[in-house]
Amino acid sequence: MKKIINVATFSIVLLVTAAMFISILIWPTINAVETGMTPEYPEIQPHYYSTDPGRVHEEVVAAVDALARWELIDQSASDLRVDARRPSTIPMVDSTVEIRVEQFTDYLTQVHVRSEGSRLRGDFGQNARTIREFLAELDDRLGAVKFEPHQGDDDEEDEEDVGDEEDQTAEEDHSDLGED
């Protein structure tokens, strides 16, 4: 019986060690993620809203208050900045979150987020999840005024494709005329 317990204990330790090694290979060993600045997460970009920065700042504060397990640490309406903390279910992987609201153009406001882990080397993707969670909540609150800066790029490519097709059709029509 004692031998079975020793084998089981050794197997569990071996599995946990293997899982830790695999997780190190899967997740980048970074401790901070910032919108538009972290090459490991190119999909995490600043969000834009077509409303004034004061309203966006109010919704940022409300979003932090509404999120489960988030704590508002500090906020400044004059600097349009919010500092928050998000405790994690993973021990020692709490995130400190800095949110900046900036006037981007006369008609657009940008929200920039930085999340940094507090203790461990590598965050197992928690900082990216923290930013995604916050931005999803903010989008729910400001969805009617959300602006997608790259939304028109596909339309321009489609127009170019249509133009190319028209050029080819015109060339075919002219070649038909030359054959008569």
What does this structure look like?
The chain has helices at 2-26, 53-66, 126-142, 153-179; strands spanning 32-34, 47-49, 71-76, 81-86, 95-103, 109-117, 146-147. The chain contains four helices and seven strands, in the order αββαββββαβα. It is elongated. Strands 1, 2, 3, 4, 5, 6 and 7 form a seven-stranded antiparallel sheet that branches. The protein is 46% helix and 21% strand. The chain starts with a helix and ends with a helix. It has 180 residues and is α+β, with helices and mostly antiparallel strands. The relative contact order is 0.15.
Key terms for this structure?
180 residues; alpha+beta; Alpha-D-Glucose-1,6-Bisphosphate, Chain A, domain 4; 2 domains; elongated
Helix residue percentage: 40-55%
> Class of the largest domain, according to the CATH hierarchy?
Alpha Beta
CATH topology of the largest domain: Alpha-D-Glucose-1,6-Bisphosphate, Chain A, domain 4
Number of alpha- plus pi-helical segments: 4
The end-to-end span amounts to 97 Å
Our estimate of the beta-strand percent is: 15-25%
- Number of separate domains: 2
| Average predicted confidence as pLDDT | 82
